[in-house]
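Internal tracking record. Fields below are filled automatically when a chain is submitted to the structure queue. Please do not edit lines marked as system-generated. If the sequence contains nonstandard residues, flag them in the REMARKS field before resubmitting.
Queue: standard
Priority: normal
Entity type: single polypeptide chain
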Amino acid sequence: MTPDTRTDVLVIGGGQAGLTAGYFLSRHGIPHVILNAEPRVGDSWRRRWDSLELFTAARYSTLPELPFPGEQERHPGKDEIAHYLEHYARTFDLPVHNDVKVQSLDHDGVYRAETTAGSYEAEHVIVATGAYQRPHVPAFARRLSEGIAQLHSADYRNPAQVASGDVLVVGSANSGAQIAQDLAPTHRVYLSRGKRLPRLPRRLLGHPLHWWGDHLGLIAAPLDSWRGRTQRGDLLIGTSLRQLSRRHGVTLLPRTVEAERRTVRFEDERTLEPETVLWATGFRSDYSWIHVPVLDDRGVPMHQRGVTSAPGFYFLGMHNQHSRGSSLIAWVRHDARYIVERIAGARKGAARGW
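SYSTEM-GENERATED OUTPUT FOLLOWS
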């Protein structure tokens, strides 16, 4: 079967990781195509809740060679990020194919992706579909009555979409904490927390938090180095849970362990009958469409800094792929450059018959 499109490198994912890979591929003059599952570049950001702001200041929210516009110490909103990514793709004339969803990826001499817009073939593939792809909700959520409104943080936009009455936010990492604060002025909010996370403010001693991480070489440090080992584990950045309780009236509850009809039960045996449950319980990877032996028995990529044992197959932009910065906008460039330089080297070797 003849492919609809043939290229040297197929980049799957049109977010910050995929665009950064495209930038370096263009600099090397390597023909490539970037497949973006969304109708527009940046749409995955546009769908986030209205009040979302980045933890990183504008100066640390940039992709290569294009400064983020405006005042550099502010924390950009999600629509600003979406616009910036779209502007980035246009500025560097990146070959993004929008609204193309990959349904399967196989290898038979070349890599072949079957998509909603036809088939693509390439000698090399970079999977840059983001840190997480599939919203996760605990199985016991299905036991709640239909009268209890439920939504995941991926579907939350603003307090107006949440009915009046008690709201239980399950999950106290950054998304859960921010959404609880967003809801607090208009709703009675309960926040169920699981593992306690270390907390750091957005600014420390007059500098943005990521200024310290950058200047101390922590964010880009390999996780198996002594600097990198200090960066393992998640952080709560910004307002602390104690501040949520004291300043915003959010009631803190322990881990949610069970649900039945209208009742949610917590680790200390307390119960609550909320009108709405908002699951800020994170995401899970979904690589079930990849039919190449690069995943372990759990479906987790097997790689070293994104490089797999399958020739020409790479991952980019995953959480903790190589460093804490691997999934962060301003730091994904390090892994992207590393992978593209390997591709460039392989192409030169093939051209010389090595």
